[in-house]
């Protein structure tokens, strides 16, 4: 068996097995992406009115006091014209006067929880996410092999073959090839990023870059107006878009040292996020860490100042699920998932016809 034959065998048989798992992942991805898009396109009757630093400081104080379970406060922007208090899977929208407009919890939506865990781990708890990860990686490899096999016999694009004219295997196969070429690159990125989200130790270290030592403006402890003003002075031309609480570490049992320190005041280091310019793709990527208790700015790091490895690592999750990315990107990956669902459906039909249909004919 030569290399091309081996690649065809791998592409066909491994692709068939992977297609079953990837069909689940892509189908649920279409649903999850559609839900995200609907949320992003809802303005809740608000028009964008920027807040002053005084209003932002008052908003942070009020929202964190009113909703202690929320971890992030986002200020109005052109793409989201209302204040938002959020935590994992939950969000509350408010107008500029802090009147509640709407509240939502993703898992309260019909089929959302089932779709999410099907997408994440096939409803097989912890072991399922590793099956998902390796299936995603194999899907990326199959995509590259498909491109290579097409390249060997390429004869240009044929737009008229993009949609199948009928249900014959030849028509489905031609549509598979044309559609596959259109989405091959974003599909490969979705596959590889899905793998890396599970094996996050391969890339999260690149995010732990220590910013260069700098001198920062001094602000008052426990005073949000003073601290937001100091943070804005660090990057006067950037838009201050959100403030996040420090995340509590879950799952750790308190030891004797932790119990001894339980009554000591805890310094809360908050993260203040900025957008460097209005057209930025990765939003909230520039961050300042500030000790709210003392008012000391501990670090400031812009996405543009990261090394290449850090910039790439910053995009791993956003490229996969659209987190902090524009709605246009979410629409793109949702469309890719939809087309991918069609391609895999065509593949399964043609493969089963060729492999199992021929055996049935021979048996008769």
Automatic annotation (TrEMBL):
Keywords, ordered alphabetically: Membrane, Transmembrane, Transmembrane helix
Record's compositionally biased regions (Basic residues): 246-255
Membrane-traversing stretches: 12-32, 131-151, 179-199, 329-352
Alphabetized Pfam families for the sequence: PepSY_TM
Transferase listed as a keyword: no
Ranges for region Disordered: 238-260
UniProt name for this protein: PepSY domain-containing protein
Organism annotation: Shewanella algicola
Lineage of the organism: Bacteria, Pseudomonadati, Pseudomonadota, Gammaproteobacteria, Alteromonadales
């Amino acid at each position: 068996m030569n290399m091309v034959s081996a690649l065809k065998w791998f592409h066909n048989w491994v692709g068939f097995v992977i297609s079953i798992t990837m069909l689940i992942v892509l189908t649920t991805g279409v649903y999850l992406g559609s839900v995200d898009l609907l949320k992003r396109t809802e303005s809740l009757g608000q028009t964008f009115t920027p807040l002053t630093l005084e209003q932002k400081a008052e908003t942070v104080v009020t929202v964190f006091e009113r909703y202690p379970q929320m971890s992030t406060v986002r200020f109005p922007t052109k793409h989201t014209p209302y204040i938002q208090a959020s935590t994992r899977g939950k969000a509350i929208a408010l107008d500029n006067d802090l009147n509640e407009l709407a509240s939502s919890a993703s898992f309260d939506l019909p089929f959302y929880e089932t779709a999410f865990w099907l997408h994440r781990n096939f409803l097989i708890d912890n072991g399922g996410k590793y099956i998902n990860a390796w299936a995603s990686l194999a899907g990326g490899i199959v995509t590259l092999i498909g491109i290579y096999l097409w390249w060997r016999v390429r004869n240009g694009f044929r737009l008229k073959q993009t949609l199948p004219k009928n249900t014959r295997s030849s028509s489905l196969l031609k549509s598979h090839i044309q559609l596959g070429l259109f989405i091959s690159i974003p599909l490969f990125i979705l596959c590889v990023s899905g793998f890396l989200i599970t094996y996050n130790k391969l890339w999260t270290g690149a995010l732990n870059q220590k910013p260069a030592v700098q001198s920062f403006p001094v602000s008052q402890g426990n005073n949000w107006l003073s601290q937001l003003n100091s943070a804005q002075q660090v990057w006067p031309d950037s838009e201050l878009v959100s403030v996040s609480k420090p995340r509590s570490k879950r799952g750790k049992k308190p030891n004797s040292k932790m119990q001894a320190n339980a009554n000591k005041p805890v310094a809360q280091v908050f993260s203040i996020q900025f957008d460097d310019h209005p057209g930025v793709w990765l939003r909230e990527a520039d961050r300042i860490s500030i000790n709210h208790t003392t008012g000391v700015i501990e670090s400031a790091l812009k996405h543009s100042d990261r090394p290449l490895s850090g910039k790439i690592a910053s995009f791993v999750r956003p490229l996969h699920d659209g987190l902090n990315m524009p709605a246009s990107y979410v629409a793109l990956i949702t469309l890719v998932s939809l087309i991918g669902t069609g391609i895999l459906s065509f593949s399964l039909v043609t493969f089963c016809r060729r492999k199992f249909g021929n055996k049935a004919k021979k048996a008769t």
